[in-house]
Write a structure and sequence with these properties.
The protein has 419 residues and is α+β, with helices and mostly antiparallel strands. Helix content is 51%, strand content 11%. The protein is elongated, with a radius of gyration of 28 Å.
C-alpha cells in the first residue's frame, strides 16, 4: 500500500461528485465565495482510504455561509459559531448528508482545545493553523488540488510532519502529540518523522493538562490502526505512553492480541487491545475507565476480563469451555478466550477450538421453570428457587448433557425429599 501511486487530482471521485456535496459547494460559490474540501477528506481520498466526513473551508464569513445556504434551500445549523463553523445539511432521507463549513481562520491564541480565532481570506494562513502538512490539503469542486504548504510530497511519502515549528505547535495544543502518533499509525509508513518525534518526547509532560475525552478519542483510534505496534513502541521510548496509560504498558501483549485477531479473521478491537496493553487485574478497571472515559458497556467488558474466579481457558476441556460460554454469553466468552491467549506466550493450544465453539454449539436453554417445581407440590417461595438452582447446577456439571426426562426424574426426587 505504501508505494501505491498517489493521484494528482481528485476529479471524478465518487464522494466529490455526489450531488449533495456539489450542491453545497455550488451554493457557496454562487454567493461569491471560494469553497474547498479541506483536511482529512482530501488526505483520505488521495490515499485511497474511505472518505467519511467532508469538511469544507471557505472565505465567506459564517453569517454569509448561513444566509447563502438557507437561500439555496439547504438546512444551516450554527454548530460552532465561535470557530466559524456552520453545519449544512443537504439532501433528504437516506441521501441526507451533513457538511461542516468553516470560515478560513487564524488561531490567534490557543488554550488547548479553545482557540481565539480571527477570520481571514488567506488560504495559506488557514493551512498554517492545521496540525500536519498532509492534513493541510484542499480540493475544489472539480477535484483540483490546492496545496499551500507542500503537504502533497509528505503525503506521498506517508510522512506526518508538523506544520511549522513542532515544539511551538505542540505547546499550543498538547493533543497534537497524540495526533502525531495516531495519524502516523493510521496513514503513515516507515519511521516516524524524527523532528516531530523528538518534539513529542520533549513536551510529553504537557499532556497532563488534556481532558480525558480528547485523549480517549485519539488513543482508541490509534489502538485500532494498522501501525499501532510500531507506534506504541515509539511512544513508550519517547516517554509519551506513560503520560497516556495509567499503568506500565504491555506492548508485546498487544502484538499477540493483534495476531490473534488477524488469525481468527476479526476486525481490530480497540478495547481488547487496551486490555492487552494495560489490564493486569481487577484494580486496573477503574483506572482505565476514568482515564479513557469508558462507557458502562466497555467497563463491563473489562470487568469480565479481569474477573478472577473462573477456570483458565488454556488446557480447558470441551465441557469446561461450554460452561464458560454458557455462563458468559458469546461476546464475553470470546473476549476472555482472546485476552487469555494474548497473555500466554506461545498461545493457547486449544485456541481455535475454543473460538469455534460459539458457532458450533448453540447455547442450550434450561428446560425447567418454577411452575414445574410448584406442580410437584412444593409451595411457592424460596424452596422453589433452591431446587431449580440445584438442578441447574447438575445440568451444567453434566456438560449440559442431562436430558429433560432425566431432569424431571431428579425433580421428582428432590420434591419428594422436601415433603
Ligand atoms: P480523521 O479522518 O481520522 O477524522 P482528520 O484529520 O479528519 O482525521 P479531524 O479531527 O476530523 O481529523 O480534523 C479535521 C482537520 O482539522 C484535520 O485534518 C486538521 O487539518 C485539523 N485539525 C484537527 N485537529 C487539530 C488540532 N488539534 N490542531 C490543528 N489542526 C487540527
Ligand atoms: Mg475527520
Amino acid at each position: 500500500m505504501s508505494n501505491a501511486r498517489i493521484p494528482t487530482t481528485l476529479a471524478g471521485a465518487g464522494w466529490l461528485t455526489a450531488p449533495v456535496l456539489q450542491g453545497v459547494l455550488g451554493a457557496l460559490q454562487r454567493c461569491g465565495g471560494t469553497a474547498r474540501v479541506a483536511g482529512g477528506a482530501v488526505r483520505n481520498a488521495l490515499l485511497g482510504v474511505a472518505v467519511k466526513d467532508v469538511d469544507i473551508a471557505t472565505d465567506l464569513t459564517p453569517d454569509d455561509v448561513f444566509d447563502c445556504c438557507r437561500k439555496a434551500g439547504l438546512k444551516a445549523v450554527p454548530t460552532g459559531v465561535e470557530h466559524g463553523t456552520v453545519t449544512i445539511v443537504a439532501g433528504s432521507g437516506t441521501d441526507a448528508s451533513a457538511f461542516e463549513v468553516t470560515t478560513l481562520r487564524i488561531d490567534v491564541e490557543t488554550h488547548g482545545r479553545h482557540a481565539d480565532v480571527a477570520f481571514t481570506d488567506d488560504w495559506e494562513a488557514d493551512a498554517s493553523r492545521r496540525d500536519f502538512t498532509l492534513n493541510a490539503l484542499y480540493c475544489d469542486a472539480s477535484g483540483t488540488l490546492f496545496d499551500p504548504l507542500n503537504g502533497y510530497a509528505d503525503l506521498a511519502a506517508r510522512r506526518v510532519r508538523f506544520v511549522g515549528d513542532a515544539d511551538q505547535r505542540i505547546r499550543e495544543d498538547y493533543l497534537r502529540i497524540l495526533r502525531f502518533f495516531r495519524i502516523h499509525a493510521q496513514y503513515g509508513a516507515g519511521a516516524l518523522d524524527a523532528d516531530g518525534l523528538a518534539a513529542c518526547a520533549r513536551n510529553a509532560d504537557g499532556m497532563s493538562r488534556l481532558s480525558s475525552e480528547r485523549i480517549r478519542q485519539e488513543f482508541m483510534r490509534l489502538l485500532a490502526a494498522p501501525l499501532v505496534l510500531d507506534v506504541l513502541g515509539e511512544m513508550d521510548a519517547a516517554g509519551v505512553l506513560s503520560e497516556v496509560v495509567p499503568v506500565p504498558g504491555n506492548v508485546s501483549r498487544v502484538a499477540r492480541m493483534s495476531e490473534l485477531e488477524a488469525a481468527s479473521g476479526r476486525e481490530p478491537d480497540a478495547l481488547l487491545r487496551l486490555a492487552a496493553l494495560a489490564l493486569r487485574g481487577e484494580r486496573d478497571v477503574n483506572h482505565l475507565r476514568r482515564r479513557f472515559v469508558l462507557t458502562n458497556r466497555e467497563t463491563g467488558r473489562l470487568e469480565r476480563l479481569a474477573a478472577t474466579r473462573r477456570p483458565a481457558v488454556a488446557g480447558a476441556g470441551a465441557g469446561q469451555l461450554k460452561r464458560l460460554l454458557y455462563d458468559e454469553g458469546e461476546e464475553s466468552y470470546t473476549d476472555i478466550v482472546l485476552f487469555e491467549a494474548s497473555g500466554a506466550p506461545g498461545g493457547a493450544e486449544n485456541l481455535s477450538a475454543a473460538l469455534a465453539l460459539p458457532r458450533e454449539w448453540p447455547v442450550p436453554v434450561f428446560a425447567l421453570k418454577g411452575r414445574d417445581v410448584i406442580a410437584k407440590g412444593v409451595p411457592a417461595g424460596a424452596e422453589v428457587g433452591a431446587i431449580l438452582k440445584a438442578l441447574k447446577q447438575e445440568w451444567e456439571a453434566s456438560g449440559f448433557a442431562m436430558r429433560e426426562e432425566v431432569l424431571r426424574a431428579r425433580l421428582d426426587e428432590l420434591a419428594r425429599r422436601g415433603d
